[in-house]
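Dear colleague,

Thank you for sharing your sequence with our group. We've completed the structure prediction you requested, and as agreed, I am returning the results in plain text so they can be pasted directly into your records. Please verify that the sequence below matches your submission; if there's any discrepancy, let me know and we will rerun it promptly.
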Amino acid sequence: MRLLFWSSFGVVVYAYIGYAAWLWLLVRLHKRPVLRERAVPFVSIIIAARNEEATLPAKLANLRLLDYPADRLQIIVASDGSTDRTAEILQENAPAVLPVILSESQGKATALNQAVHRATGDILVFFDARQSVEYDAVSQLVSCFADPQVGAVSGELLLETPSERPSGEALGIYWKIEKLVRKLESASGSVVGVTGAIYAIRRSLYTEIPQGTLLDDVYIPMHVARCGRRVVFHPEAIARDHVSTEKGKEFSRKVRTLTGNYQLLRLEPWLLSLKNPLLFRFISHKLLRLLVPMLLIVMLITSALAGGAFYHAIFSIEVLFYLMAALGGLGTPIRRFKPIAIASTFVVLNAAAALAFCNFITGRNKVWAR
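Please find the predicted structure tokens below.
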């Protein structure tokens, strides 16, 4: 029991702290900077949209403010079987925007593929319809391709409260930790995935995405890495989003993302072989976190059964932690106490991982989720 407890504890600590510590050490020993230069290659901006009439006008207005030369920029938006005014809005904005209208919904992956087929740019820049991007976002992404080893570049997503301040909630803290890991991965080689709201790749490295794929922002960069190119994180290329105040929305997004990780293993079994140049990073960053919910249950049970005052104390601490998480679920006022907010968020994220596993084995994969 004690061996099982400490083995589980060790994996959990490594998944959230140990891997970041290893990357930090690797950066200190062998940092790999990225060559950046101002350049203006022809760029195709790719957006897949489904029922985005509420956000699309603001997004198109946002893109008109980009500082990139208009004659070196192509904007393609694919409407994936939208049932609202999305297709009409796109047609109204032609020819500044090249609309790709799919009469029936086939999923985001298919919409992206169809848009890329019409792209003429040397660099493909992928944005989502919901978030706004900084005026220099494209220029910042493109500057990294001056390095011939770079095949894909991820930008940074800033989560903000409705007051337009960076989120101080526990979810914001989790996202800061995630971005720290990505920065360390980039500085030491390649990141495992990119920020779906803002990333770019060389057109020659684009791989057709299988229909129904949930995580294009992992599928595409992993294929770029397989081609021997780096996937880097550039925090000066910025997209902004608001933390959703709609109950359950952020949880649904997390479930979708984690379900997508399971799906990738079925779609691309080479990810768990030596054909994957980022195998160690993929396991450490993506897969171990999927195991954490089960390991937490093992820790709770084994600490209860191990016997002795020390393990009884650990069991009591675990129970207290989960009680704090439960209190955090009661509402906003009590979540202002940061330990409760952190405990609640940690448990919710791992509940999302558990639900993602259930979704995967039962085939309940959602292709579109905002």
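Summary note from our side: The chain has a mean pLDDT of 91.

Kind regards,
the structure core
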